[in-house]
Amino acid sequence: MENRDKYYMRLAIAEAKKAEAMNEVPIGAVIVLDEEVIASGHNLRETTQNAAAHAELLAIEKACARTGSWRLENAKLYVTLEPCPMCSGAILQSRIKRVVYGAKDPKAGCAGTLMNLLQDSRFNHQSEVVSGVLEEECGELLRSFFRSLREKKKKEKTVAKKNGTNSTN
């Protein structure tokens, strides 16, 4: 199963790179049903100015439309970053069977890092969770994106200071 997980995670990474090309945080997701990719998504929060435009939520919405059901009971979700509380809730509500993620999220991870909503027995559904698939590659996408963003902001501040203007970001 590990090779299949890596294969689908590479597709999620390709989605993350689409987000990065749009100056979005590079997070991507794919949903697989019966070994077929039925939906994919990448972060679009900045583009849409919608707090809910996370890769997982966009992919879940597409998968539900494709299957004609809100129940994705036999589906597997592959995502480059550990799901946040909002996405974990949507995963549980859509009954996704298995979640495979790459990098851990120490600030908002709800699939084992801060807490594990996906396997909490108090809910009426739990998902199998597999973490760390292509973790280094997924993590490096995020690290390089934020490193580049910090460098850009630093340059903008330097230019603004040089020109005697205030930078407002």
Automatic annotation (TrEMBL):
- Sorted UniProt keywords: Hydrolase, Metal-binding, tRNA processing, Zinc
User: Subunit comment for this entry?
Assistant: Homodimer.
Give the protein name, as stated in the record.
tRNA-specific adenosine deaminase
EC numbers listed for it are 3.5.4.33
Q: What does this protein do?
A: Catalyzes the deamination of adenosine to inosine at the wobble position 34 of tRNA(Arg2).
Look up the record and name the cofactor or cofactors this protein needs. Zn(2+)
Which SUPFAM superfamilies does the UniProt entry name for this protein?
Cytidine deaminase-like (SSF53927)
Give the family, as the similarity comment puts it: Belongs to the cytidine and deoxycytidylate deaminase family. ADAT2 subfamily.
A Pfam family of the record is MafB19-deam
Entry-linked InterPro entries: APOBEC/CMP_deaminase_Zn-bd, CMP_dCMP_dom, Cytidine_deaminase-like, MafB19-deam, tRNA_aden_deaminase
Cofactor remark: Binds 1 zinc ion per subunit.
Positions annotated to bind Zn(2+): 54, 84, 87
Taxonomy, superkingdom: Bacteria
Provide the catalytic activity annotation.
adenosine(34) in tRNA + H2O + H(+) = inosine(34) in tRNA + NH4(+)
Q: Which GO terms describe its biological process?
A: tRNA wobble adenosine to inosine editing
**Residue span(s) of domain CMP/dCMP-type deaminase:** 3-149
Which principal EC class is assigned to this enzyme?
hydrolase
The protein's GO terms of the molecular function aspect are:
tRNA-specific adenosine-34 deaminase activity; zinc ion binding
Q: Where is the active site?
A: 56
